[in-house]
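Section 3.1: Structural characterization of target chains.
Under the original work plan, the team committed to producing a structural model for every single-chain target entering the pipeline before any wet-lab resources were allocated. The record below documents one such target. The sequence was received from the expression subgroup and is listed exactly as submitted; it comprises 561 residues.
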Amino acid sequence: MENLLFYDIEVYKYDAFVVFKDINKNTLRIFHNDFEELRDFIKGKTLVGYNNYFYDDLVLTKMIRGWSNYQLKEFNDRIISGNNTDKEVDSCINSLDCFQQINVSKPGLKKIEGNMGKMILESSVPFDIDRKLTDEELKEAMFYCGYDVDTTIEVYKLRENSYFKTKELLVKKLGNSKAKKWNTTTISGNLLTTSGKINKWSSIRIEENLLDKVDLEVKEMWLQLNEPAFELNTKTITKKEFGNDIQFGFGGLHGAPSKPIRVKNVKLLDVTSMYPNIIILLNALGPATSKYIDILNRRVEIKHKDKLESDALKLILNSVYGNLNNQYSVLNNPRAAYSVCVYGQIALYELCKRLSDSCQIININTDGVAFTTNSTEYLAVKEQWEKEFKLNLEEDNFDLFIQKDVNNYIGVKGEHIKCKGGDVNKFSGDKYFSNNNARIIDIAVVNKLVHNKDVLETLIENRTKPELYQYILQAGRTYQGTFDQDNKKYQNINRVFACRNNGIQLSKKRLDGGLVKFADAPEKMFLWNDDCSKLENFEKIVDLNHYYQIINKKLKMWEIQ
């Protein structure tokens, strides 16, 4: 993408400004209280912001239209309070939003800065100040505004290939310039049907002989979907079978032994593109199913030739199931979505039953099953099942498989370690856009379980990386803010570490004045909101015992009984 302008806006009662930078973080221009040349400056450019579809694009429109500082401040306050109904965006504004579809937790820019180990200091200049800013205050406010633009640039670079380029290709395929601001789910839905919304099913469409493959009470639970009002009195049923607790419901099939396990030489059979293929089998998209098939075939054709188009087509294929159960999508057809899910559960359950004669099932998770075996009988089961259910299975394996429960496991294959679940998923890769708190805990848990590495050894050798020990604490809008034990107010978002001595204790203050502790945060906190790379003598500050106790508590839950 060319002609990118990264920007951020700040609005005070007597001062309003917008900072523009290029992708190399060079400041190109700052407009302050005089926006006469703003339209010409952004003409022909693609603006990139963070949450700008909700805020910056709207305020920029008013700046271009010549609104006064008083009007801008009033408009700003309406947006922030959630009372704004004026969503007009000037036609000269062509923009991308780094916040769009970033993560289900919807992290603010300050939270991301914290997760990255960067400075998260907020400007000390209050936004409700009732006078013109002094030169020093203006300089500080502009510095922090520019700093947020720098972070926006970093977020864009992290998402450029995985999101923005893919989305750009989808928009081109759709041929609708208005789709530039749509999310990829909406674009994908519109790519599949141009004739408006599809017809909704009045009942689930699963053949009786398939429904009879599960227990009667499970079948009756699913048949609730045929009731006109969708009244689901029973939502899940758990059965104990072939050594697993197996849960049926209205999501995927899940199952695992009731106690932690540790086994070697584990095989996996995963259903290839399970939901996309079941959507085709059930003709869940009606007339649009043929187009869906064309997209699936096209992706197979170019999968190893054109990564960008392959990723774009994969996005379309994988978004359809969610669109079927999305009331705002043109593809909305809830009973079709549930039919796909039920078919998948029956098929996977039947696979597990057939495998159980010669295999020990250890994990069942939506589209795949993991097991151990000393024979090759599973191959005949695989072949017959594929013919019967018209789906394909891909075989994989782990050298070592450690599991606490169905949603928490570690798979080791050669040098590669795959982790899933809240206890271990932060072991590898930085979670900048989600919860990145105390990654050292996950690292130590995995090191101990996989390599039998002493917990204290992991903690000591990583003391030069304070970002692994950090907690990012955030007081949301429903709170007055963050306060310590002496009622001193702090930033809304803060970085703290467990410390040995003279620590503070931060809490969230409710609107009624009551204090609420931050979940899982240490009792004694060392506050550091500057860049982690500037933190000296960390090994003398951090309380390793805090992390040690949490790690060992988690490890106990992974112990083989």
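The mean pLDDT is 94.
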